[in-house]
Specification:
2 copies of one chain form a homodimer. Chain A is rod-shaped, with a radius of gyration of 42 Å. Helices cover about 70% and strands about 5% of the residues of chain A. In chain A, helix 4 runs antiparallel to helix 5, helix 4 packs parallel to helix 7 and helix 5 packs antiparallel against helix 8. Chain A has a single domain, classed as Arfaptin homology (AH) domain/BAR domain (Substrate Binding Domain Of Dnak, Chain:A, Domain 2). In chain A, the strands form 2 sheets. Chain A has a two-stranded antiparallel sheet with strand order 1-2. A two-stranded antiparallel ribbon of chain A has the order 3-4. Chain A is mainly alpha-helical and about 350 residues long. Chains A, B: Keywords: Coiled coil. Chains A, B: One of its GO terms (cellular component) is clathrin-coated vesicle. Chains A, B: This is Growth arrest-specific 7a. Chains A, B: Pfam families: FCH, WW_FCH_linker.
């Protein structure tokens, strides 16, 4: 607590007075309190020619304080990689809980699964619209309207009506392909196992954080024990100096031994903590990279299948256009003279012209 | 009647015996009876080197008999023109009435009006189908499905959804143009006046036929009167030869005068008949040509407007295809790295990596 801050302050003041460069051994471990800000400012304003590394724990994870010191380089510069940006927990503004950076990454993948399902649903709706349209066109193509038109004009009209059925077939084909090449894949991409795999990652990382919290508690406990032992030693030493008690040197040696032991305990706890944090760190890097890869694959897969959608749309419009061509052809062949010939041959009443009556 | 047939037969037999060429003056007018067939056959089998013109009246119109003689050349050869093929009446097999060739032509035009209306109805149905399709696509384009997709993939998806609305607009435009450029014209082409005009033609030609029938009745009446007069003269002449009666030459002169007068009456009636038939003939040629022209115009007009239909179909499919292009463009721009950058910038929790705890 404050004790340490004051002690640190004094060490540094001393070093400054003596022009001494403070080495790594002088790292001071501080808990996160309001004093840190004050202290940091003090360090900065005094332009210390030191490289102090001040640390803070947030939710049992140890971070360096921002400020002068060796800047951390991104693990994967210019890549905006997951492994570089999700170390801290995010505090939920609406409540007191916080969510880990990893959970943010995980939620994104789960969200992605939901989005692909919604896309499939959208495609399904399009399929229904196409089937309805095809059904209507097909029905209309069977209409007997103007079926009595004859000759080349009648043929063109008949083909025009038929072309609606051809168009219907094109749209039906489109909707079938939409189903097999876009909708169904969107529904089945990353099946149920995907969520299970994500859950496994989730639990694994969460377990490591729990372990880390547990190790951190041990460190705090050992730190407190050391503080107690040191205070005891100090008191006993002072008492010896002012001959306040009957304590013998034996007692001081014992107190000193216990203090040393407490110090060793603390170091062991810190070691274990650091090992666990390293393990968590490794898993974070590995797993976040895995999630990053999954996201790239997801985007590329969806891109590919949406391109399949647009390809089908192109094809459909082209096929649809070609359905009009036979109609165009027959319309071009419409020949009133031909139609007159056909009709007259069929319907003529008599080609012998009347002549004058004579006696 | 039979009297004439026998008389004609005898004249021709005589001529044949004497190797005489029978001139125009010897045209014999015969009523339509079974004898005609027998007679025609007789004429044909005897390979007469004559040009007999035997006539027959059907429904008061006078036609030359088929057979050897100057062939009638078509008024408009190789054109299958209405004016060449609709002279006779057509007998309705189901009843005793007959329908004129002209009525057949008229019915065709009236039928054409009905057919254009049916075509308009068909186009109307297509319009309804297009509007339904457009409505459905538009509605689906507003769907919030997968709206939470972000970055370049989200943009592509958003454009994909929007493209449905663009397609809907294309189809709506198509249906609107179908209405103004095809349906409406088909409905209004040849308005109500058309039927009225046709009715006028109908009545005019029918009136001329009625007049012709009336003139024909007069001819028959005059012919009978002549026959009576001639019989009377013959009887009176015979009676004179065998001195059967007290008839004086006066009576015979009177009978002969009446006979001559009856002959003149007949010739006048035949003249009037021929004038009326000529008038009807002219009107038939003129009006049937008019109907022929109307039919050519009808076919060409419909051809033109059905081509407008196919043009609109072509356009629609082309516009529709182009609606996919912005989607293609955005899909091409889908960039997982970019999306990661955007998302990470927005959602990162902290880029400071944990460090070892130290005392």
């Amino acid at each position: 607590g404050e004790h340490y801050i004051i002690a640190a302050q004094r060490v540094i003041e001393d070093a400054v007075d003596h022009g001494v460069c403070i080495q790594a051994e002088c790292w001071v471990c501080l808990s996160l309190t309001l004093h840190i800000v004050k202290f940091t400012n003090w360090v900065i304003t005094h332009h210390l020619s030191v490289s102090p590394r001040f640390l803070l724990q947030i939710n049992c994870v140890t971070f360096p304080l921002p400020g002068e010191g060796p800047e951390q380089q991104l693990l994967k510069p210019d890549e905006w990689s997951y492994c570089d940006y999700f170390w801290a927990d995010r505090k939920d503004p609406q409540c007191t809980t916080s969510v880990t950076g990893f959970e943010v990454l995980l939620q994104k993948q789960l969200k992605g699964k939901q989005l692909q399902k919604e896309m499939a649903e959208f495609i399904h709706e399009r399929i229904k619209i196409e089937e309805e349209y095809a059904k209507n066109l097909s029905k209309l193509s069977l209409s007997p309207l103007a079926a009595q038109e004859e000759g080349t004009l009648g043929e063109a009209w008949t083909q025009l009506k038929k072309s609606l059925h051809d168009e219907a077939e094109v749209h039906l084909k489109f909707s079938n392909k939409l189903h097999t090449e876009v909708e169904k894949p969107l529904l089945t991409f990353r099946g149920d196992n995907f969520k299970k795999d994500l859950k496994k990652y989730d639990h694994h990382i969460a377990d490591l954080r729990k372990q880390l919290a547990s190790r951190y508690a041990s460190v705090e406990k050992a730190r407190k024990a050391l503080a107690d032992r040191q205070k005891d030693l100090e008191v006993k030493t002072q008492q010896l100096e002012i001959k306040l008690s009957n304590k013998t040197e034996e007692d001081i040696k014992k107190a000193r031994r216990k203090s040393t032991q407490a110090g060793d305990d603390l170091m062991r706890c810190v070691d274990l903590y650091n090992q666990t944090q390293s393990k968590w760190f490794e898993e974070m890097v590995t797993t976040s990279m895995e999630l990053e890869k999954l996201e790239v694959e997801r985007i590329e897969w969806i891109q590919q299948h949406l391109r399949q959608y647009t390809t089908l749309r192109h094809e459909t419009d082209m096929f649809n256009q070609s359905m009009v061509e036979p109609v165009d052809q027959l319309l071009q062949n419409v020949d009133p003279a031909k139609d007159r010939e056909l009709w007259v041959k069929e319907n003529k009443t008599g080609d012998v012209r009347p002549v004058d009556m004579d006696i």
